[in-house]
Amino acid sequence: MTDLAPKYDPNEVEKGRYQEWLDEDLFKPSGDKKAHPYSIVIPPPNVTGKLHLGHAWDTAIQDTLIRFKRMQGYDTLYLPGMDHAGIATQAKVEAKLRKQGKDRHQMGREAFVKQVWEWKDEYANIIKGQWAKMGLSLDYSRERFTLDKGLSKAVKKVFVQLYNEGLIYRGEYIINWDPELQTALSDIEVIHKDDKGAFYHIKYPFADGSGYVEIATTRPETMFGDTAVAVAPGDERYKDIVGKELILPLVGRHIPIIEDQHVDPEFGTGLVKITPAHDPNDFQVGNRHNLERINVMNDNGTMNEEAGKYAGMDRFEARKALVEDLEKEDYLIKVEPIVHSVGHSERSGVQVEPRLSKQWFVKMRPLAEQVLKNQKTDGKVNFVPERFEQTLNHWMEDVHDWVISRQLWWGHRIPAWYNKKTGETYVGEEAPKDIENWQQDPDVLDTWFSSALWPFSTLGWPDTDSPDFKRYFPTNTLVTGYDIIFFWVSRMIFQGLHFTQKRPFNDVVLHGLMRDEQGRKMSKSLGNGVDPMDVVDKYGADALRWFLLNGTAPGQDTRYDPKKLAAAWNFINKIWNASRFVIMNLPADAKPAHMPDVSKFDLADSWIFDRLNHTVGEVTRLFDEYKFGEAGRELYNFIWNDFCDWYIEISKVALNGDDEELKTRKQENLIWILDQILRLMHPIMPFVTEKLWLSMPHEGKSIMIAKYPEVHAEFENKQADSDMAFLIEIIKAVRNIRMEVNAPMSSQIDIMIQLDDEANKHILDENADYVENFLHPKKLEVSSNIEAPKLAKTAVIPGAQVFVPLTELVNVDEELAKMEKEEKRLEAEVERAKKKLSNQGFVAHAPEAVVNKEKEKQADYESQLAGVRDRIKELKESN
User: Fold this and answer.
1) Is residue 435 in a domain?
2) Annotated binding-site positions
3) pLDDT in tens, 199-239
4) For the segment 105-132, what is each residue's pLDDT rounded down to a tens digit?
5) Number of independent structural domains in the chain
6) Helix 86-99, helix 109-134: angle, nearest 10
7) How far lies 825's CA from each of 607, 812, 828, 862, in Å?
8) CA-to-CA distance for 645 and 731, rounded, in angstroms?
9) Range of the domain at 196
10) Where are the beta strands (DSSP E) in 70-221?
11) Binding-site residue ranges for ATP
């Protein structure tokens, strides 16, 4: 046993503890083949910077589950790793290089990638330091990175297999293009938000000189790529002009008027310009009518030679200049300001440009159907909360082909080569043998392509004989935010099913978003983010973990609240002080906690062990159901209320008494309950529970591998629970009355308890020591036949009424004078209110709410006056 400071100091408690766990190899799987395996692979954070509170929330839940299952005897694996985060990391490094006056194109691919690896190493070390401060029991011997050799092997195998199965293809399609990062984006990497824009109404003249048609567009700069104007089939307004030709303003190129089902005749003028290289719908129209595809922009968002004199101008500068020229040449009819939803790059924030591009795609329909089919079986992925399964299903039902190529240098290079002479394509896990005749595709794969394989690639797949893959796959639980279902969860599910024929995890536990105190999403632009490491420095990792697990229900957002962090620290300090009290009251030769002798329990013992049993059963059930907030409430109520406020206080009677045998039994009970509390709390609060457990008599080198508490049938005692509840209610009632009449515990008072059932008298008789200690009665009368005194404070509790006569506690003459003074004051208030409400001018002209407020005041004063008059009557009768 070691001395404990009088106050909980998280910095002292946590200092050096993590390294001790690492030195003892406590984070590795047990290796017990008879034990059930339980595995979680950490959602790999991006090596773009420090972790935020959302990461802390993720990992606090994961580590709690792992520690819980480890203590229950499972063979647990908590596998760490990080994601290379292609676009995000490359953007960070390029920004850093720009500040140094460097450009990746000037540096070359090899030198640039070397710079990114240096960035990765720096931030990976920062992240691992944060994991340590959070106390995550990760098996670092199995740490993975999405660009390591094993995962690269898995990525290549998946790409080649999907290509050979016809599920990966290369083709020209309209994709989302980020002009700043100069790469393709998938649909879910585009954020739509409202922007100010305009409808530009432009004249497109007939080639035969017979007039013009009016075309409205929000992107006039794309008109250089127009190859047709379309109307809806059967639109009576335009049946006579279908097939005629128009002259493209300022360009002079002739384009036809066509019919196509894409056009909505009710929208705008019912005439739509068709730009197949710059709009996804126009691309489909162009395919149906064999229209030319004219790309009018460069990769960086500037106009190309197709734009004539506007070539080289930024797309938005070109728009402004073009509109001015259209007006000068009398082609502009009007400009109609609007606010419309526009796609922006999730990474760079710039407006996305829909653009024709040759890219690699995954054909999603067959993979999505496999997921939808599996979700109807017993082998489906279980979502917590269940409602998010619909989110997955809706996305799978409406899925589009996934563009997986990225025009980046940081990432998995696409395993495709093009013959320099013939142009043929070769796809394979290894490069062609005559490599000098081939050129590898310069693009890399979307980051999500490799992270979609994370649950099985980290365990040794594609080697299906890998011991870890055979032992720990499928993983048991994925914990992540609900905002990543589209990006990651869905992709892991379809890749897992396709390549392993199994779901990648049994359960997906989804938490919400961490918001600031005002309910706003945390963001750099608002400057309202909170560094979890700052929180740990101030309150401790255990307090942060407690806050995160008890903040909300699964799937719900939560607000960061420093007051709740302070409350969490205060709760830990309560546990600390209770532990310190128990340990200080143990004999020097105290033995580790052992099962108590139930036959020697008194009422308080039977009650606390029944409450402990209930808490163990409920917390275990709630952890298994991922209801951490409810589990936290059970733990808090038992520890703070039942154990600290009641059982420890009750035990002091024996600990301060002369009965050595009784004192020993109380000490043994206290250390057993404390031991069980620390084990219950350890998954959530690993640092402080380890410190306290090692400071008391114990067996084993760490609480981390101690057995998790179990329900013991011999502790069940509902009668004791009921009897103790009765005794507690009596004690609370007398305490409240003492406070009301300002009678301190040091003073003795007369107490009368009228029982509803005489059978309950034994509870007070058999616990006379507790009654004496907590009620401190001068005279105690207990019966079912008690005549209530005329002047007394009364409390009604289940099964009894408690009376405390006031004759000796109150100076009747002084109290009577005080009450008569209060009576006069209230009479005046009632009279004032009556006069105000009888004033017809006030009632007629004052707002209804003001009049109603005055009526409420009158009713309240009248009620108070009636109570004072009753009190005066009681006092006079007692005198």
Assistant:
1) no
2) 524
3) 999 999 999 999 999 999 999 999 999 999 999 998 899 98
4) 889 999 999 999 999 999 999 999 999 9
5) 5
6) 110
7) 50, 20, 5, 11
8) 12
9) 178-354
10) 75-79, 81-82, 144-145, 168-178, 183-185, 190-205, 212-217
11) 524
